Each structure stands twice: as C-alpha cells, then as structure tokens.
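Need a sequence for this fold. Nothing fancy.
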C-alpha cells in the first residue's frame, strides 16, 4: 500500500469594475493560485504558487424598434488567465491557459399586446488560446515548420497569432465557437415559457469537442421548471445527459 494520491488547488481573486458611462465598462481581476499534489506511488510531490490577470472591455447599447419594443446589444472583449509560465518544482515550465475571448449578444424585446411579450436572446463567443502552437521538427530536432515555442508569456500573446505550422488556416482552426439562444414568451407578469439551444464547436484537429444543449423551461409566479438535454457530437445514447430541475424564487426585503 503506497497511500492515496492527493491534489489540492485553490485561488484568491480581487476584482475591480468601472463604468465610464451607460455603454462602456471595463473590468480587471488579479488571481493568486496555489496548487499542490502528492503521488506516493511514484514518490513525487509538487507545489505551485503563481498569479494570473483577467482584463475585459464591454460595450452595451439599446435601440428603439418601436414605442414598445427594444433591441439590446452587447459587445465584449477579454483576455483571461494571463500570467507567467509555471512549473511544479523542477519540472518543465508550462503556460497558463491564457485565452482571448470575443463575444456578441443581441436581445430583441418585442411587444405583442398587453399580455404578451416575446424576448429573444442570441449570443456568440469566439475563444482562442494565446499560447504557442508546437512546431514541426525533423529527425534531428530542427524546426521545419512553425516557430520556437520556448518563449515568454508576453511573447506568446502575439506569436500565437502566426506561429501555427499550418499557417493562417490552422490559426483559424484554433478558434473555438460557442453559440447560445433563448426564445421566451412572457405571459402577463407572472408566467413564461422558454426554448433554449446552445452549441460548442471545436475543429477536429484541436480537440474536436462538439456539444449541443437543448432546453425547455417554464415559470408561473415564483415556481420555475427547466428541462435540458446535453449531447456530444452525434447524440449517441452514452453521450447524452438529461436533466430536470425545479426552483422556487424568494424575495427578501431588508
């Protein structure tokens, strides 16, 4: 008996947000990260202490479609998990999973009559890792395509846009696409029904993760009921998760 593997990890985060006006806002967060693992069977221990920064920008706007209908829009840009390269003790250094995120949100809020409103939410997010892509080597270890990946975290940010061995086409393949939508019919001020859909698409050469979510929800007064299906690629039986949840909303006035 060699004991159990033990892995611990936690982080502390401080967040600062500022709105310049009703449309433009920005945010900054700093994270302290601590991680430790013990693998008794291999007599290996590791400790990690580092920090990471998130930075984001958001632009919101609202347009009048009619006297009673609105169009809300939001555009966001963020960099997450930017920090120095890390290593456990004397092992090889690795990059934090730094990402560039670009998001767009469109929300038409349509008035039908006194008792009905139709609300549509459409969202799209593009994600790209800001870390080097490994080059191609020959049998002697010389780079034949791509760029040296042993660079600093700062260099990796801009190098990650042109260092893929497959050129511009591979850089585009590195982008993960996320889509989300909700169609909600509000009946009076007490009830609603909603249809939801979400999708994640990743290129087959970069992980090939392809998820879809379908959801149906409803609410009456304070009671909410939601049903969803989460599937991977083609909805094979073992790759599908079904979920049913119920909720009740409380309001506390102080």
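Here you go.
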């Amino acid at each position: 008996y060699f004991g159990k593997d033990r892995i611990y990890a936690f982080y502390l985060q401080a967040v600062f947000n500022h709105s310049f006006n009703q449309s433009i806002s920005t945010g900054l967060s700093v994270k302290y990260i601590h991680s430790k693992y013990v693998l008794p069977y291999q007599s290996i221990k590791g400790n990690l202490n580092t920090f990471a920064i998130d930075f984001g920008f958001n632009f919101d706007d609202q347009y009048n479609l009619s006297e009673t209908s609105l169009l809300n829009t939001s555009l966001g840009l963020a960099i997450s998990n930017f920090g120095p390269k890390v290593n456990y003790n004397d092992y090889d250094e690795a990059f934090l999973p730094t990402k560039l995120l670009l998001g767009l949100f469109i929300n038409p809020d349509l008035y039908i009559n006194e008792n009905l409103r139709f609300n549509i939410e459409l969202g799209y997010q593009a994600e790209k890792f800001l870390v080097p892509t490994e080059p191609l080597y020959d049998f002697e270890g010389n780079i034949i395509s791509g760029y040296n990946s042993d660079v600093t975290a700062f260099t990796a940010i801009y190098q990650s846009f042109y260092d893929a061995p497959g050129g511009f086409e591979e850089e585009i393949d590195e982008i993960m696409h996320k889509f989300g939508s909700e169609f909600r019919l509000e009946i009076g001020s007490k009830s609603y029904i909603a249809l939801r859909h979400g999708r994640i698409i990743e290129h087959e050469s970069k992980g090939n993760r392809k998820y879809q979510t379908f959801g149906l929800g409803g609410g009456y007064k304070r009671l909410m009921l939601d049903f969803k299906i989460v599937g991977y690629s083609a909805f094979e039986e073992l790759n599908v998760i079904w979920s049913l949840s119920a909720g009740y909303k409380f309001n506390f006035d102080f």
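For context: The chain is about 5% helix and 60% strand.
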